[in-house]
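Limitations

Structures in this collection are predictions, not experimental determinations, and the ligand pose is part of the prediction. Treat each record accordingly. The example that follows, with coenzyme A as the small molecule, is included so readers can see exactly what is and is not provided: the inputs are given verbatim, and the output is the predicted complex.
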Amino acid sequence: MATMTVLTTQRLILREMSSADLDDIAALLGDEYVMRYYPRPKTRSEAQGWIDRNQERYRDHGFGLWTVISRSTGEFVGDCGLALQRVDDSDTDEIEVGYHVRASLQGNGYATEAASAARDFASDRLGLDRLIALINPANLPSQGVARKIGLKPERHSTYNGRECIIYAGELQSPTAAGRAARPSGASPQQTQGLTRTSSDSVLRPSGLRSPHL
Ligand SMILES: CC(C)(COP(=O)(O)OP(=O)(O)OC[C@H]1O[C@@H](n2cnc3c(N)ncnc32)[C@H](O)[C@@H]1OP(=O)(O)O)[C@@H](O)C(=O)NCCC(=O)NCCS
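Predicted complex:
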């Protein structure tokens, strides 16, 4: 089945997930090392649920987590992308960047490269001006990626009852020079929840629509 390429970077392709990815996604999310900061690894049927959930996100919102592939080898690297999330002490949905990289391929800058592209998609294609990551305080690799894409620790909260640090960054509008996220507090448009800066349609926390790419 043809799957849609959403983004390309120097070394990576980010494309929509399909059920043909089940072996790779099940191996990734079933890996105890990759999932060591989660309650437990996912079973194969939960991995299929992860694919289904992301396909729903593509349909409902025009984005989700995408499958990440090496451009040079065609090898499966992991997943990365955007998802609506709501922390336990908030009544507003926000957009989170998420990522998982196969254990054997970690430490090569792949998560940073993929997450940078997802961040730019959020600002340039969705017109968002804020991006978050919800990270287990013990998960230093994930916090390293968040910092490298311009997010900063904002506050502690809980997500599904588990402690997390909210990393957040304000995104430059598509017309601004450069693509790095602004230092927190630097934007004139401090926002709560989903907002937009430049597209024609207003993004809403539920029933969010954006052009499907
Ligand atoms: C988080 C994760 C995706 C990072 O993937 P990666 O491709 O290895 O990340 P990168 O190579 O781009 O590393 C980016 C930065 O992360 C930090 N980092 C990476 N591995 C680290 C480690 N083992 N310990 C501390 N920091 C680490 C560093 O700051 C690194 O930058 P540097 O190379 O300049 O030092 C990967 O560790 C992973 O899949 N973890 C399990 C899934 C997960 O926890 N996802 C996030 C949920 S919030």
